[in-house]
């Protein structure tokens, strides 16, 4: 007997995944969505507040998953002990695997699963793609809702004739069909790479492309969506960006997590600016920019103290080149604020600059965007 396909959304506690839960709940109630939250045990209070607000809005519980498997033990501390006090880092992200990915894959088991991921239409990243064949990722915010592994199969040169035939059955407008078939017939090459071909096909009809992809999945693959006859997101042609996400959260009444809201800061020599937290996740996330560590110190000093305690005396630190003890020395805080304020002024100026070099310079100074869901 075939197992029923499950539809799941992981709630990180951030803006994008939370808005996605609201978005899909309101537009596609027939999906029978399941919601889960991988609790590291080291989240900000605002994250748990957001989860409770979501549960009220959705009218159901968000399943809380803990990687330790022991409801009485803090998940992060459990694995930190196993790893001998070795702190996770950008190069050794055991926290992501043990506290996020493993609990999720255990939760879904071997069931066929559609996992909805809140990567926006104005972001250029793929996010986590499970290597398990029973889990398929879908990106509802984007014009291209499909993951790269699906696109590679559909746009492969050896299936050009099949895709062309599927378009013939799908598209009724003869002039548009002619343009689509001419494009489909062109093999991938240096002048027409996969991303460009995908973009051109989407510009010729998002909905038609989705139906062609779904038919290919059903006839030639064993993805979970091969078991689904009707998938309502095939008709969705929206492209949801950052401002849309904030609007969804505000209009629903769930609200934007408080840590995203900018607060004013003052530094030495008249330096002023605003700072906030840019991500959900553990309060000591090693992907934080230094100004975010300063934000944590000044807004949640008790949590900063806990983060410092993890560094201990064995040489492990959250940042490669600086300890949390050194970061909060008065002169160092003043320098971090001054550097950040200067960078923000450059960013404001460069946003209106016609020169690409200006924008590249700013991009190179940004922190890692991993786990921004």
What can you see in these coordinates?
This protein is α/β, with parallel strands linked by helices. The chain has three domains: 151 residues, Rossmann fold; 56 residues, no CATH class; 102 residues, no CATH class. Strands 3-2-1-4-5 form a five-stranded parallel beta sheet. Strands 6-7 form a two-stranded antiparallel ribbon. Strand 2, helix 2 and strand 3 form a beta-alpha-beta unit. The longest helix is centred in the last third of the chain and has 22 residues. It starts with 5 loop residues before the first strand and ends in a 10-residue tail after the last helix. The relative contact order is 0.12. The C terminus is likely disordered.
CATH architecture of the largest domain: 3-Layer(aba) Sandwich
- Terminal residue distance: 35 Å
* Main sheet attributes: strand count, strand direction, barrel closure: 5 strands, parallel
CATH topology of the largest domain, anyone? Rossmann fold
Number of E-type strands: 7
Low-confidence stretches: 355-373
What average pLDDT do the residues reach?
89
Helix vs. strand class: alpha/beta
**CATH top level label of the largest domain:** Alpha Beta
Could you name the CATH homologous superfamily of the largest domain?
HUPs
Number of separate helices? 15
Order of strands, widest sheet: 3-2-1-4-5
């Amino acid at each position: 007997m075939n197992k029923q396909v499950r539809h799941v959304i992981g709630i990180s506690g951030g803006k994008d995944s939370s808005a996605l839960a609201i978005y899909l709940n309101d537009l596609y109630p027939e999906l029978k969505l399941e919601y889960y939250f991988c609790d590291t045990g080291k989240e900000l209070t605002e994250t748990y507040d957001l989860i409770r607000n979501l549960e009220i809005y959705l009218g159901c519980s968000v399943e809380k998953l803990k990687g330790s498997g022991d409801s009485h033990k803090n998940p992060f501390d459990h694995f930190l002990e196993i790893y001998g006090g070795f702190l996770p880092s950008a190069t050794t992200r055991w926290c992501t695997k043990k506290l996020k990915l493993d609990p999720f894959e255990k939760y879904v088991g071997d069931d066929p699963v559609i996992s909805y991921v809140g990567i926006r239409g104005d972001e250029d990243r793929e996010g986590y793609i499970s290597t398990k064949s029973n889990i398929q990722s879908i990106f509802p915010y984007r014009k291209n809702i499909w993951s790269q592994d699906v696109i590679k199969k559909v746009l492969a040169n050896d299936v050009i004739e099949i895709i062309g035939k599927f378009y013939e059955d799908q598209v009724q407008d003869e002039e548009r069909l002619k343009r689509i078939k001419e494009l489909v017939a062109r093999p991938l090459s240096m002048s027409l790479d996969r991303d460009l071909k995908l973009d051109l096909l989407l510009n010729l009809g998002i909905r038609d492309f989705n139906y062609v992809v779904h038919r290919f999945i059903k006839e030639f693959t064993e993805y979970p969506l091969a078991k689904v006859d009707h998938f309502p997101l095939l008709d969705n042609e929206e492209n949801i960006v950052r401002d849309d996400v904030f609007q969804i959260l505000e209009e629903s009444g769930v609200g934007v997590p408080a840590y995203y809201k900018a607060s004013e800061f003052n530094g030495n020599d008249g330096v002023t600016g605003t700072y906030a937290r840019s991500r959900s996740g553990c309060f000591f996330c090693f992907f934080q920019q230094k100004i975010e560590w300063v934000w944590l110190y000044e807004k949640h000093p008790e949590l900063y103290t806990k983060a410092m305690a993890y560094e201990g005396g064995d040489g492990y630190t959250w940042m490669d080149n600086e300890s949390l003890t050194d970061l909060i020395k008065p002169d160092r805080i003043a320098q971090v604020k001054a550097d950040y304020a200067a960078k923000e002024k450059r960013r404001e100026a460069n946003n209106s600059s016609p020169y690409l070099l200006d924008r590249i310079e700013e991009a190179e100074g940004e922190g890692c965007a991993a786990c921004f869901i």
